[in-house]
Amino acid sequence: MMLKLGVPSKGRLMDKTFAWFATHGLTLQRTGADREYAGSVEGVDGVELVLLSASEIPRELAAGRIHLGVTGSDLVRETLADWQAQVAELALMGFGHADLVVAVPKAWVDVETLDDLDAVAAAFRARHGFRLRIATKYHRLVREYLRAHGVADYQLVDSQGATEGTIKNLTAEAIADITSTGETLTANHLKILRDAPVHCSQATLFASRAADWRGVAETRARLFGKLGLGDVPGLE
Ligand SMILES: Nc1ncnc2c1ncn2[C@@H]1O[C@H](COP(=O)(O)OP(=O)(O)OP(=O)(O)O)[C@@H](O)[C@H]1O
Ligand SMILES: O=P(O)(O)OC[C@H]1O[C@H](OP(=O)(O)OP(=O)(O)O)[C@H](O)[C@@H]1O
C-alpha cells in the first residue's frame, strides 16, 4: 500500500509546496504531459503524489483518500466541520500567507470596527427592510466570527469569486474575503475593519485521521523522519 500525499496541482501554492519538500530532501515532480495530472516523489519509497485542486484537498483528507495533504489553513477550517477531529495540523509551511478579513466601503466614515458595523447593520435593516448583505465564499468561518463578536443583523450572500466587485454591483454592502497585498481592496475603494482578521491563513501540511495509517507504517516513519515531524497521536 502506498502513502498518498495530496498537493496543489496548479495555482499559487504548487511551486512553493514543491520547494518546501525539496528543502527536506524530497523531490516532487509533475510527470507526463504539460496538462496531465500525474506526479512522482523521489527521496523516500512508498509515497504516491496525488495532484489536486487546493480547494479539494480538505475533503479528500476528511474522506481518508489521501494520508497527507497540503492546502491553505483557511480552506480546511472552512470546508470541514470540527476540522480538528478530521485532520491533524502537522506543519505550518511559511508561505501562502493571506488574511480573511471583513471590509466595507471606504466612504463609510463611521464604520471602523465590528461594533460600528453592528450598529450600522441594525439601522440598515430598519431603513431598508432587509438585512445588510455580506458577500463571501467563507460562510462557516464568517458566521462563527460574527457570532463570536456579537454581530447578528446581517445576511451572507454567496460569492465564489471577484467578491470585491459585489458592492459596486449592488449585490452586497460589505464583503469578507482573503487578502494578501491589499491591492484588490484598495482598487475597489474598500477598507478592512480594525478588528483582528477572521483567520490568518498559510499553506499547511495536514494529516488525515480517517486514512488507513496501519498499512503504511514504515513509509510513514521514514517520511516523518525526513520532514522532522515527531509522533502524531491519533493516526491509525
Ligand atoms: N491573494 C492571495 N494571496 C495569497 N494567498 C492567497 C490569495 N488568495 C487566496 N490565497 C490562498 O490560496 C489558497 C487557494 O489557492 P488557489 O486559489 O490556487 O486554489 P483553488 O481555490 O483550489 O483554485 P483552483 O480551484 O482554481 O485550483 C487559499 O488557501 C487562500 O488562502
Ligand atoms: O490582496 P490581493 O493581493 O489583492 O489579493 C486578493 C485577491 O486574491 C484572491 O482572489 P483570486 O485571485 O483567487 O481570484 P477570485 O476573485 O477568483 O477568488 C482574493 O479572493 C482577492 O480577490
Automatic annotation (TrEMBL):
It is an enzyme of class 2 (transferase). Residues 54-212 form the ATP phosphoribosyltransferase catalytic domain. InterPro entries: ATP_PRibTrfase_cat, ATP_PRibTrfase_HisG. It holds the Pfam family HisG. Keywords: Amino-acid biosynthesis, Glycosyltransferase, Histidine biosynthesis, Transferase. Its EC number is 2.4.2.17. GO terms for molecular function: ATP phosphoribosyltransferase activity. Pathway: Amino-acid biosynthesis; L-histidine biosynthesis; L-histidine from 5-phospho-alpha-D-ribose 1-diphosphate: step 1/9. It catalyses: 1-(5-phospho-beta-D-ribosyl)-ATP + diphosphate = 5-phospho-alpha-D-ribose 1-diphosphate + ATP. PANTHER family: ATP PHOSPHORIBOSYLTRANSFERASE (PTHR21403:SF8), ATP PHOSPHORIBOSYLTRANSFERASE ATP-PRTASE (PTHR21403). Catalyzes the condensation of ATP and 5-phosphoribose 1-diphosphate to form N'-(5'-phosphoribosyl)-ATP (PR-ATP). Has a crucial role in the pathway because the rate of histidine biosynthesis seems to be controlled primarily by regulation of HisG enzymatic activity. This is ATP phosphoribosyltransferase. The gene is hisG.
